[in-house]
């Protein structure tokens, strides 16, 4: 088990280890602690489904360090002008956006050809995602259908199958809001 303190280099390093060794990690996002893996590791992301006991038809949200990195997975050109303006004005407000997925994105990360993407409102996390070079999946640390855990001591105790942890702080301590902006209208999901 590896538990590191949150900083840009440690986050980037565990993202790299996760990708290289095909294993998930737990880390603080801007909202809550997340369990995730680099999108470059399908095997690590498949393992998260097993750990969470989550149905495979429910893809994980993906965190990107910038709009440019988000374009690796989401088709921003498919958005109408109102919806594009909405994401530009709200991307740093703890919101996950459902957008048409890029065709090259593996199926594990999309549903109905859409992807859930968020640019965190946490500079340290964004910088480490950019250093890693790939977006990272991130879903709440809990068994599917249960309340999320946000205390690293409890997380390490209850998720002992995970071998990579970053200990740090979250900003919100609530899940992000979710808006589907893939169609003509902006639809609030949560």
UniProtKB/TrEMBL annotation:
The gene is tsaC. PROSITE patterns: YRDC. Gene3D superfamilies: DHBP synthase (3.90.870.10). It comes from Mucispirillum schaedleri ASF457. It is an enzyme of class 2 (transferase). One of its GO terms (cellular component) is cytoplasm. Belongs to the SUA5 family. It comes from the Bacteria. GO terms for molecular function: ATP binding; double-stranded RNA binding; L-threonylcarbamoyladenylate synthase; tRNA binding. It is found in: Cytoplasm. It catalyses: L-threonine + hydrogencarbonate + ATP = L-threonylcarbamoyladenylate + diphosphate + H2O. This is L-threonylcarbamoyladenylate synthase. Keywords: ATP-binding, Cytoplasm, Nucleotide-binding, Nucleotidyltransferase, Transferase, tRNA processing. Coiled coil: none annotated. It holds the Pfam family Sua5_yciO_yrdC. Its EC number is 2.7.7.87. One of its GO terms (biological process) is tRNA processing.
